[in-house]
Design a protein that fits this description.
Elements lengths: L9 H6 L1 E5 L9 H6 L8 H10 L3 H5 L18 H15 L3 E5 L7 H17 L3 E5 L12 E5 L2 E6 L1 H6 L4 H9 L3
Parallel strand pairs: 1-2, 2-3
Antiparallel strand pairs: 4-5
Helix pairs in contact: 3-5
């Protein structure tokens, strides 16, 4: 918003950033406490369930005998990789960041769950004032991005939206895209 980053209070700046990595860390505690620990304000169950809906987590949590009070085990060992990833997304949605960094955030999800998360991201993109920074090797994850930067050896090799990059023949983006298409 045309404000120099040096003018921000670093704590305020960090409060406005959400980060979801491919390596999810969960405490040996309840689902509820694993979701709430990152949020500064008091969070009620209604807000938790709203975040769980956005992350496509409600169905698997509803099947657990203790629901939000289920202990997930050390590093979430009682849950699948996809379930842990969706909880990490829900935790970040609770924070309501202005900038959301997704670092291979859908890498451990099956194709259906990934598509549902992409739909959620698209819905948030249209209804909320959130800037998404998506780091991905799976190009289906970035298909709806406004701007894509293709990196090669730490430098920007190409830039554009999905359609623009697809139209560039013999470029790094197309090499990556062709390697992911099942023939």
């Amino acid at each position: 918003d045309d404000i120099n980053i040096k003018e921000f209070n670093i704590s305020t700046y960090r409060d406005n950033i959400g980060y979801v990595s491919q390596d999810v860390f969960l405490f040996n505690d309840t689902i509820r406490n694993n979701l709430k620990w990152i949020v500064q304000e008091d969070v009620n169950d209604e807000k938790i369930w709203d975040a769980l809906k956005l992350s496509n987590s409600v169905e698997f949590i509803d099947e657990l005998p203790k629901k939000l009070d289920t202990i997930v085990g050390e590093r979430g060992v009682q849950l699948s990789g996809g379930q842990r990833q969706r909880l990490s997304l829900a935790r970040t949605f609770l924070k309501k960041p202005k900038i959301l960094i997704l670092d291979e955030a859908t890498s451990s999800l099956d194709s259906l769950s990934e598509k549902e998360i992409q739909n959620t991201i698209e819905k948030l993109r249209q209804t909320e004032n959130i800037t998404f920074i998506i780091i991905a090797h799976r190009l289906s994850t970035i298909k709806n991005a406004d701007n894509i930067l293709v990196l090669d050896k730490g430098k920007i090799a190409q830039e554009g939206n999905f359609e623009e990059l697809v139209s560039m023949k013999d470029c790094k983006f197309n090499v990556m895209l062709n390697s992911q298409i099942i023939k």
